[in-house]
Amino acid sequence: MKNKLTPKNILFGLLVCCLPLLMYGVDRIALFLSGYDIYLGLPSGDYMLRIIVRACLYMLLAIGLNIVCGFTGLLDLGYVGFYLIGGYTAGLLMARLGVTYWVALPLAVLNGALWGLLRGAPTLRLTGDYFAIVTFGFAELLFRIVKNEQWLIGGPNGLVRDIPPPAIFGLTFNQNWHNYYHILILLAFVVFITYRLENSRVGRAWVAIREDEQAAESMGINVSRYKSLAFAVSAAIGGLGGAFIAQFQVNISAPFFEFWESILILCMVVLGGMGSIRGAMIGAAILGSLGEILRPGFIVPYQFGNARYLIFGIILILLMRFRPGGLILKKA
Amino acid sequence: MAQFLEQIINGLVLGGIYALIAVGYTMVYGIIQLINFAHGEIFMFGAYIALMLITVFGVPFWVALPLSMVLCAVLGMLMDLIAYRPLRDAPRLSALITAIGMSLALQNLARMIWSARPRQFPDETLPTIFLSQNAISLPGGATLPYRDVFIILLALVLMVALNRLIYLTKIGKAMRACAQNSVAANLMGIRTNRVIAITFIIGSALGAVAGVMVGLREVVTPTMGYYKGVAAFAAAVLGGIGNITGAMLGGIIIGLAEVFGAGYISSGYRLAIAYIIMIAVIVIRPSGLFGKSTGKRA
């Protein structure tokens, strides 16, 4: 992708950079007009910023999942497992050992990558459905473990308010706008890395494996090595997301990492079109914010519970039926 | 000793239920190579439909059970017609994602209709023989409720009936032909789509029975289809996916393993045992315990 400094791009960049200021402005105007933080039943700017941070986190995770699902064409139903590993690695290091976030973050990424390799090794030969089932079982096993083990990770309660906010140069990250810039930098880093990978020898090897594994093998691509690399990079990004959520949510517990979270991320990748980084980001932005809007108690009445998952399910079915390539059709 | 005996009985009953669900997974996989994730949801709907028929419409149990089977069969057929048939020639991944979407949608639809509250078949609506105090006393102090005898016998009868259907009837022959090679079967004049629809009908009806059975022993919740469905799927994988007899035996093994694991290791890891068995089988021997090693992996 060429970087073009068109006015549109510059404007978009400015908007992204000044978003917290904008949201702050929304809050001030609302306060001025109504005397309250919440105006006309709309959520406050600060709350919207929080939703945006979550959407950015989903973008990061969707990009990570897209590496395995989109580039190498294997259906990973257990991506949330790496997210969990990253979250608990960073959370435990910070809460129990008092390690600072800036050390815990790379360790969580490395641990994610390690588990990506460990899970990848026995599944290298598997394709299609069987790969999907093993990844699903892997994530569910991890979920059961964190839900049941009390002694270190708090069982069903998780790590409750034990994780200190990260600080740098005396500035403590405890405001939403801190987290916004924080996730923006992480996201930019991940986007940069994945774009570079996609347009390199590695990315072309991944796509070759997706198109035809045997042909790729016979053209001299070391399929096992490139698949392992894809698993590791994808899992590392999941670990990065987990480390972020650990400090963002202050406490983490098993329900953060349920199976449906994997499906939600998959849904984002599919919506944007598998194999496209931009698609994954747009899918995550749409579904991430839609998921917040459809949360019970906002538009959807409480008694309907998680109607949003009903809608995500229908989106998956309709997309596969009518637009299997996703909303963003990648140019061949 | 009494506890051990009761665990074996529990395991066998659970195994029979799993076998009934697993057959639905394995038959569909055998013919269209699709892991029908939503099969667990059909099973859950079977339980809810019977429950609603009994509690809301006052239908007697012996009518509600077959009625629930029929309604679930229709649901299964519609699911195939609406969601899976248009994707018959699409990449397999698309159909799998559709199945996941279907499962997600149906599960949350059930949650919207019936709420997440666990429900039970009220005692006064059931035939008195099913009440938990009506039990055979076994030597050693163990008890065997008539309910469990009924479940095991019904599961056995249905399994044998299915086996006969597959091996002795014309439609069974057509199903086996489609499982071997659906294109060739189609060329031989078998209406493949109709055979697939019938497969969904049979699988869904058996799933509905399993749902009612679970309702008799435990509670009915919107997530039961997901939890029991995965265990039943593990049973199908263990028996060699596509292999119906294997699915029955796999169901019994998973049922026993789950009950003994929960009883003697930790109840929190009930489901984990099924997952571990499933992963181990796929990684070590993808063709399953009873499947033929064809060298072809899904």
Describe this structure in words.
The complex is a heterodimer of chains A (332) and B (298). By secondary structure, chain A is an all-alpha fold. Chain A folds into two domains: 1-42, no CATH class; 56-260, no CATH class. Chain A is built from twelve helices and two strands; from the N terminus they run αααααββααααααα. Chain A has helices at 7-34, 45-71, 80-96, 101-123, 128-148, 176-198, 201-211, 213-218, 223-249, 259-272, 277-293, 307-322; strands at 167-168, 171-172. A two-stranded antiparallel ribbon of chain A has the order 1-2. Chain B has a single domain, classed as ABC transporter involved in vitamin B12 uptake, BtuC (Orthogonal Bundle). Chain B has eleven helices and two strands; from the N terminus they run ααααββααααααα. Chain B has helices spanning 2-32, 39-55, 61-84, 92-114, 146-168, 170-180, 182-187, 192-217, 224-238, 244-264, 270-284; strands at residues 135-137, 143-145. A two-stranded antiparallel ribbon of chain B has the order 1-2. Chain B is globular and about 60 Å long. Residues 293-298 of chain B have low confidence and may be disordered.
Explain briefly what this protein structure is.
The complex is a heterodimer of chains A (about 325) and B (about 300). Chain A has twelve helices and two strands.
The geometry of chain B reads as globular
Beta content of chain B = under 5%
Structural class by secondary-structure content of chain A: mainly alpha
Low-confidence stretches of chain B: 293-298
* Helix percentage of chain A: 55-70%
Provide the number of structural domains of chain B: 1
CATH classification class of chain B: Mainly Alpha
Shape category of chain A? globular
Q: What is the radius of gyration of chain A computed over CA atoms, rounded to a whole number of angstroms? A: 20 Å
Largest interface: A-B, 44 and 46 residues
Give the helix tally of chain A: 12
Largest sheet of chain B: 2 strands, antiparallel
CATH architecture group name of chain B: Orthogonal Bundle
Number of helices of chain B: 11
